[in-house]
Amino acid sequence: MAKRLVILGGGESGVGTAILGKKKGYDVFVSDFGKIKDNYKEVLALNKLPWEEEQHTESLILNADVVMKSPGIPDKSPIVKKLMEKGVPVISEIEFAQQFIEVDTIGITGSNGKTTTTMLTHHLVKQGGLNFGLAGNIGKSFAWQIAENKHEGYVLELSSFQLDGIVDYRPHIAVITNISPDHLDRYEYKYENYIAAKFRITMNQTENDYLVYDADDEIISKWLGEHKIKAKKIPFSLTKELNEGIYLKNNTIISNITNEEFTMPINELSLEGKHNVKNAMAATAVAQLMRIRKDTIRESLSNFQGVEHRLEKVLKIQNVQYINDSKATNTNATFFALDSMAAPTVWIVGGVDKGNDYDELMPLVREKVKAIVALGVDNEKIKKAFESVVDVLVETTSMTEAVKIAQKLAEKGDTVLLSPACASFDLFENYEDRGKQFKNAVQNL
């Protein structure tokens, strides 16, 4: 009898897993407690895969041999609890899919910078002539790409939720960009649980694998000091010279991790900002470990186009620069954004707060922000934090209105920055939808 694979969640990772599962001979069923988008329903129908939406039918789910849970579904959800009680393995798409490949993966995680680092790394390995897929938290699902079997390796962006659901997954090169409090609502508000989730990326690595990490990050250094890992450590740093690693000296990136020393002046990087120097260091480490030529690495770092919704310059109108940083869904990401502002800033902030502590932003807000537009259903916490710090704070629940207010508040030479520091689900479908609405509103000014 075929093994029964039940998939919770009919989104990108769910549908991809369903296609791979069917191809590998599983008896597949997809169940989504919400609505499944039409384009995914078409794919499911085309592949003759059974599905249900707006319910979880227990008789069709609890008989599973293995369950793939989409990253958006918390462990606390009733159906997941019942499966756990029955002892049914509940895994992530990454774990399910990895058993069907023999090729290497590069796994990248971190609270911030992981999308940019993942896309930059993928750009470097592709420019270096390697046919690697790009998947994980981004693009076409890992499982789907494995079902199509066109790649000689994969660069994966991995969230803590995806790492929660791994058992045997082992990246050949793992990257941890940084760790700061995020998604604590999913980790019983215990920071140490979230930190442990991130470090699952290295738990199955062997002496032949690598862990690339930010040596300036206190949380990472502390954890590595207290736990033994097998992988070879490759640190990068902006502040200290490393005997073996990647560091900054005289505004030049220097890497001595392989026999070939690599150097690149940071003013030649296509991305601006200190945090992007770190992202470039992480990507360079991977590219060198993958034996990509130095000239190719240098060229790729200088022509990389950046990520949509991440400090994306939209338009200049009446000498006011509008910047879309909708992808900043926590305070740490917004810290980087405010830190890189050179002009007085009208800051659009707000959404679903994930247990944010706004204290770390105070010095930057005092120094750079002239006015705040709070865009959210509930702005109380933001008001309480910043009312006394800025001269003007206006509340709204519409993006079009937020942009119009910002335009009124901005003068020539100012910047209007959308960097919400919060999730988007109170008013938008996701951060992409929020960013697109911002760009539309700016284009219609």
TrEMBL record:
Q: In which pathway does it act?
A: Cell wall biogenesis; peptidoglycan biosynthesis
Q: Does the keyword rRNA-binding apply?
A: no
Locate the residues binding ATP: 110-116
What does UniProt give as GO cellular component? Answer: cytoplasm
Q: According to the UniProt record, what class of enzyme is this?
A: ligase
Q: What are the alphabetically sorted keywords of the record?
A: ATP-binding, Cell cycle, Cell division, Cell shape, Cell wall biogenesis/degradation, Cytoplasm, Ligase, Nucleotide-binding, Peptidoglycan synthesis
Protein name as catalogued: UDP-N-acetylmuramoylalanine--D-glutamate ligase
The source organism is Flavobacterium album
